[in-house]
Each structure stands twice: as C-alpha cells, then as structure tokens.
Design brief:
Number of helices: 20
Largest sheet: 8 strands, parallel
Number of domains: 2
CATH class of the largest domain: Alpha Beta
Shape: globular
Number of strands: 24
CATH superfamily of the largest domain: Metal-dependent hydrolases
Strand content: 15-25%
Strand order of the largest sheet: 8-15-16-17-18-19-20-21
Structural class: alpha/beta
Mean pLDDT: 92
CATH architecture of the largest domain: Alpha-Beta Barrel
Length: about 575
C-alpha cells in the first residue's frame, strides 16, 4: 500500500517538474497582446475570445482581457482593436503567386470579360509600346471565346494588331494559348504539325492551317520555349509584389500549385535572405520545363531539400489528370455535347492510365510526398480516387494526405470516398457561382451539368476535408479570398453581375466557409499543427478586419477590408518597412 502511495507521489512530482519549463515560459511577459476584440479563434471549444498574447512569434494564450493582461510586461506591445473582428490568417491552398505577381507587373493584361475587339485593341496598344524584338505576352481571354478565336479571320486580326511582334495570350483557365502567325512560325508550328500527346493544335477545317489556338501544355510547350526567359531581377520583383498583394488581402499561407525549379529558386532566395511573409508549400512540377535545363518530376523531388527553408516547404508534387471542360480536355463519365470535331460520344480522356497513376502515386506516397492532382471532370476524379484506394491497400492507411484539385464535377457515389481514403477535396478556382468559366463549360457539357458543380455541402457533410484556393491569376485578377468565401455561402457571383445561383442547395454557412479558407486549408497543406487557428503554440498568423463578418449581410463579405495582417507575430500589412 505504501509502495503504491510513494510511486504515485513520485509520478506526480515528475509531471510537475516536466511542466516547469512550460510554466516558466508562460509566465514570461508577452511580446504582443491583442485586446478588446471579437476574436474568432477557429477552436471548437472556445470559438470567441476577447484577447490573446504572442511571444517569439507564437500564440501563448487566449481568453478575457483580464486573463491575458497578466502576461503584459514593460516591453509588451498592446494592440487594442476596439471591438474589431480578428481571425486567423487566410490559407490559400491553390495559387500561382509568382505568375500573378509577374502578370501584374510585366504582362499585357486584360480582363476575361474583354470582347475579342477589346483584346485586339489591348494587343495593339502593347505592341506599340514594345521594343524591337519584344514578345507581347498577355492574359486572359475568356474560354467562352474559343469558337471566335478558332478561325483564320481572327488570326489575321491578331496579326494586324501585333505590328509584327510575336504574340502569345493565355486564357482564363491557364490551359490554353492563342498565338499569332509570327509566334507560330518561330515555334515551327504549321499545317504539318501533329497534335502532341495530351495537347491539341487547332486547325481550320477548310485550309488545314493552324488558327493559333493551342490547347493544353504539350501543345504550346515549344512555343513558350521561344519566349525570352524571365530575368531573375524581374522574377524577384514579381515575387515581392505578390507577397505584398497576398498580405494585403489577409493571406498568410499558400500552396503554390505549380512550382518549377526556377520558381523554387526565387522563393528560396527570398526566404533565406529577406524572409517570406507567408507559409509557402510548393507543389513541384512533373511537366517538361520551358527551360530544358530545369529538373522536373522525380529529378526535382530528389533535390528538393536544397530549397527547403524556414517558411518554404517543397512537400507536394503536381499531376495533371485532365484539362478543362471548355476545351473538351476534361475526362467525364458522360459525353460532351456533340460537335463536328468529336462527334456525339466523346468523354475526353485522362493523361494517365490507372496502372500508370498507381505506380507513380505508390512511389511518392511511400517516400512521404503528397500529390496534388488536377481533376476537373468526374471521370478523372474517379480515376484519382481509384488510384489512391489502390495505394492505400499497398502502402497502408492513412498514408499521405493527397489532394484532388478543382473537383468541379464529382459522381455522387464518389463523394463519401474522400473521407474514407483520407483525401482532400480542394475546391478551386472560385467558380462555385455563375461565372464566365461556368458559362464556357456549359457550351461544352450542357447547362444542366454546368449548373451542378462543386458539391461543397455534400463533401463537408460526408466528413471530407474541404480546402479552398483562389487559383490566382487563373480566372481572376486578384487572390481576394473574400469573394470566394461569400460565394460559398450565396452560390451567387459577388462581383461580375452574372445573375442566378449555381446549385444553391450546396451552399454552406459562413462558419464553414471560413474554416475552409483557414484551418482546413492549413491541414490540407500539411500545416495544421503550425497555423490556421488562434491556439497556444501555433504561429501567430492573424488578421484584423474592418467589420464583423457575422454581423453584416452576407452580401457585404466580398467588400471586407483587411486593416492589419500579422505573420509570426510581426505586422506585414500595412508594411512598416
């Protein structure tokens, strides 16, 4: 009896001694205290508090003003937000930040709402300002313009606007390009050019000549290799501009959805010498690089640790299982609408067989590498789930948390498989409301199917981890997450004036939408223990808003302004530099 009593006393003493370092640390004055706020923590047990403390870039504690005031010291910075809403920083699980920053600074840009006449006018303006020998590289024409673009007359008009400069313009899906005759000539694309595997060189039915429309990456790789490479100075300027843009809309964590080795080098340089102002998870490219000297796929995976840094994690690989519905390059279970090129029974096709995908995923999963798989058609979504199911049987559960990106269309019978197989459903880009991309999809698959995309509510109710991303600059000129958050709740377009709602039965409440863009995306990116909620021990990534999202009409959410953004407890917006 005495022996058991003494053993219990020794155990209790050991627990107390082990806790002493934490207790001592917690008693040390905080570096920063945020007080008097409507603070939305993303913690289920204590969703709202009025104050929290930060030390060494991490949250120490949260609670009432009185409780947290005990952690103040002579050097503690006190931020009184006077009732403002505070929440964790936004995590964007699908974005192309270097491309977004570069296009903002250096490209011949125009909105996806531009008519063909407006595109020609913008190209003519850019060509007039270009230096001799310059290329005109721009974005983004609407995928709904494909039928107009695919003609000799449109190519002739583009040639006239370009004033002899080679021109290449991308569409709002990022999957297609439109080039003028000079650019086609430099790339060696002619009537005799065959479609590469996985790509389409569009040709006029009467003459057999290319129209300049190139569908999917393999079709325009040769062309993009002719474009003068981006200089390192320009890339660094674009990266810094992108970071400022991200922080300005409240984003403190991103998953770069397609990272070449060159891009990885840019982000690594900034992370090591200046410090990134976001958590960045890189998704390594598996496609051939525009620069043949750059490594891709498994060769890039082999050297990824050379680039890892404090805030840079090269932890994913990107696979494209299919393309996009407007170009009829997505893989669907049911056929596209009939057309002259494909007939009445065309479903599209995947870029991988099941055996190929299983083999590649098994290797990566076993090496601890997660995969983001682009899949917009329900056929490719099923292929992804079938492959992951095979990998789970071979490598065991739970395995790496792989992502299926976009998931525009999902067969109802496949929804429950996401949770069962530990797969993230990543909803991106922000077209879960009526949009130009949705209208372009309807032209290929019919209005009924196009109006029933993104079953977000069904996925959430099934227990699937649903993460959100902007896909900036694809389809939109800003990574503003608040447009997408409002759209998840209303299923209506907050900005473009397109009427109607897309599948309103799949709307979620505001709390769910905010979780999708904060803690859910953090978990999907492998950062759930580091960020995504205001919680002791996590990185102090938080934002101060100009209004309480829960106390204004939902139609006002897309207009929210971020007043302050903090990353690792340091204010990064507005910048103090």
């Amino acid at each position: 009896m005495h022996e058991r009593k003494y053993a219990a006393q020794r155990l209790a003493a050991g627990i107390v001694l082990a806790a002493l370092p934490w207790l001592t640390w917690a008693a040390t004055p905080a570096d920063l205290i945020v007080r008097s706020g409507a603070i939305y923590t993303m913690q289920e047990k204590t969703p709202w508090v009025e104050s929290f403390a930060v030390r060494d870039g991490r949250f120490v504690a949260s609670g009432s003003n009185a409780e947290i005031a005990r952690l103040a010291g002579p050097q503690t910075r006190i931020v009184d937000v006077r009732g403002a809403m505070v929440m964790p920083g936004i995590n964007d699980a699908h974005i192309h930040p270097l491309d977004g920053g570069y296009e903002d600074l250096f490209s011949c840009n125009f909105p996806p709402s531009a008519t063909l006449a407006q595109v020609f006018a913008r190209v003519a303006d850019c060509a007039a300002k270009a230096e001799p020998g310059d290329w005109v590289v721009g974005a983004a024409w609407s995928a709904s313009l494909q039928a107009e673009i695919s003609s000799p007359a449109a190519l002739a008009a583009l040639d006239r606007a370009s004033a002899g400069h080679p021109v290449i313009l991308r569409d709002d899906t990022f999957h297609n390009r439109w080039a003028n005759s000079e650019a086609l000539k430099r790339a060696g694309i002619s009537a005799g050019s065959a479609d590469p595997a996985g790509g389409v060189i569009d040709k006029d039915a009467a003459s057999g000549l290319p129209t300049g429309l190139l569908k999917e990456f393999p079709a325009f790789l040769a062309l993009e290799r002719q474009i003068p490479p981006r200089t390192r100075d320009r890339q660094l300027a674009a990266a810094r501009a992108a970071l400022a843009t991200l922080n300005g809309v409240g984003i403190t964590g991103v998953q770069d959805a397609y990272t070449t080795e060159g891009m990885l080098g840019v982000w690594s340089q900034i992370d090591r010498h200046e410090g990134l102002s976001v958590h960045m998870v890189s998704t390594l490219s598996s496609m051939p690089a525009a620069d043949p000297a750059e490594r891709t796929g498994l060769a890039l995976v082999a050297v990824r640790e050379n680039y890892r840094g404090t805030n840079l994690r090269p932890d994913f690989v990107k696979l494209f299982l299919d393309g996009v519905p407007p170009a009829r390059t997505s893989d669907f279970l049911q056929p596209y609408l009939p057309d002259a090129e494909h007939g009445a029974h065309f479903h599209g096709k995947s870029n991988y067989t099941l055996a190929q995908l299983v083999q590649l995923l098994t290797q990566l999963d076993k090496r601890g590498i997660a995969v983001k798989m682009h899949a917009t058609g329900d056929g490719s979504v099923r292929l992804a789930l079938d492959a992951i199911e095979a990998v789970r049987k071979h490598n065991g559960m739970p395995g790496q948390r792989h992502q299926v990106a976009h998931v525009n269309s999902i067969a109802e019978s496949d929804i429950a498989r996401f949770a069962r197989l530990n797969v993230t459903a990543e909803i991106s880009p922000m077209i879960w409301f009526p949009s130009g991309l949705g209208m372009a999809s309807a032209m290929a698959i019919g209005k009924e199917r196009a109006d029933h995309m993104y079953p977000v509510k069904s996925l959430s109710r099934s227990g699937a981890l649903v993460a959100g991303g902007s896909d900036w600059p694809v389809g939109q000129a800003t990574p503003n997450p608040w447009v997408g958050i409002e759209g998840l709740v209303t299923r209506k377009n907050p900005t473009d004036g397109i009427p109607g709602a897309m599948w309103p039965e799949q709307a979620v409440d505001l709390a769910t939408a905010l979780r999708i863009f904060s803690i859910n995306s953090a978990e999907a990116m492998g950062l759930g223990r580091q960020t995504g909620s205001i919680e002791a021990g996590k990185s102090a990534d938080f934002i101060v808003l100009d209004r309480n999202l829960f106390k204004v009409p939902i139609e006002q959410v897309h207009n929210v302004e971020v007043k302050q953004t903090f990353f690792h407890g340091r204010q990064v917006f507005p910048s103090h530099d």
